[in-house]
Design brief:
The mean pLDDT is 87. Strand 1, helix 2 and strand 2 form a beta-alpha-beta unit. The chain is built from 5 helices and 3 strands, in the order αβαβαβαα. Helices cover 58% and strands 10% of the residues. By secondary structure, it is mainly α. A 3-stranded parallel beta sheet has the order 1-2-3.
């Protein structure tokens, strides 16, 4: 686990096909893009992605991993957008954490 956290924290960009990779990347302030290894990419992935991304005020965007492998403007645009998303997510994560702590007070 520590090795994975170190790898994500030291990355310039993370491509993740799983929600936990996205959450860890956001928590570590690393740009991340949700990818699919499927031949045909669903425009709307599973509801858990939508729920999580809505909680940090981001749109659901899933792309084929092949889009990142193609050199040129598209890959650069994806990386740039992920960087912008990371900046906006930081405040949303802080707010989400505060809300979870307030909600848990009666349970302590």
């Amino acid at each position: 686990m520590r090795q994975m956290l170190h790898l994500i924290a030291s990355s310039d960009f993370v491509a993740s096909s799983g929600m936990h990779g996205m959450i860890l990347s956001h928590a570590l302030s690393r740009p991340v893009q949700l990818i699919s290894f499927a031949e045909q990419v669903d425009a709307v992935p599973g509801y858990k992605y939508g729920d999580y991304l809505a909680s940090v005020q981001l749109e659901v965007k899933v792309i084929s991993f092949t889009e990142l492998l193609e050199p040129g403007k598209r890959a650069n645009t994806i990386t740039f957008q992920a960087l912008q998303d990371t900046e906006s997510v930081s405040a949303a994560i802080d707010e989400l954490n505060s809300g979870l702590l307030r909600a848990s007070l009666p349970l302590r």
